[in-house]
């Protein structure tokens, strides 16, 4: 395949220059955009950007690398790393894509791409979950993902849980209906995380429908606390904790140590330092018998 220019030699001779890359020359890997699968970019926003580019040109360049893997496409072709919305808009506008150069290999770009999209364009919880799944498949541990993204490990757990499968088969725990509501942020990510405790897609769908109907009736957004309370009430009949009534009033039922540990893992409130979370988790672990006295003594000596 011939390109409109020799991108490899041109960029290597001057890595700082911005080139106009022909859209047809580009190798586009949807997984690098953070928006592959069923939950893609807003077409309306792309159209608005295309109109802006027609009027004023492309203000901010994209970033491309050079392909060195025949499995991806022609060798020497520009691979789009960042700027997928701009590429779609330029295609609609009928112009080339202004791009800067990155010498990084494709294998190292996913984390960087995910970081940019998450910080600047606010990926939905489902899109973040899809990226976490890819990073885990690439060998990244949750602690490494958290470090790269500037998150706590509990945030990775919350998002990562959205693509779980059923315990006894390979069907998704969250249905397409559930993921759509979460993607559109009609159901908060923290509430969505807690819904997994219900254990089946049918129960999760029912809980989401109930929450949305209630929100529609009150004219307010769904609150995480309300969904979590509903989940606990549903689990009450299964002996998993929740709420019960005593003298006509709701009272909190006792939780198992396992439930306390799981709740602590999901706990992430802005302003609470990570050392505090770790200390509380250690105490709970000691009470559950998963941590020993030496572990606890080390922490207590630092307090």
Textual characterization of the structure:
This protein has helices spanning 7-13, 30-33, 43-56, 84-93, 109-121, 125-137, 142-149, 153-160, 176-183, 189-195, 201-218, 224-236, 257-266, 274-288, 293-302; strands at residues 19-21, 62-66, 78-82, 97-101, 243-246, 249-252. The protein contains 15 helices and 6 strands. It has 303 residues and is of the alpha+beta class. It folds into 3 domains: 7-111, Conserved hypothetical protein from pyrococcus furiosus pfu- 392566-001, ParB domain (Alpha-Beta Complex); 124-268, Arc Repressor Mutant, subunit A (Orthogonal Bundle); 269-303, no CATH class. α10 (189-195) packs parallel to α12.
What is the third-level CATH name, the topology of the largest domain?
Answer: Arc Repressor Mutant, subunit A
C-alpha termini separation: 65 Å
CATH architecture call of the largest domain = Orthogonal Bundle
Physical arrangement of strands within the biggest beta sheet: 1-4-2-3
- How many independent structural domains? 3
What helical percentage do the residues reach? Answer: 40-55%
Can you tell me the overall shape?
Answer: globular
Strand content: 5-15%
**Overall pLDDT confidence:** 78
Q: What gyration radius follows from the Cα positions, in whole Å?
A: 24 Å
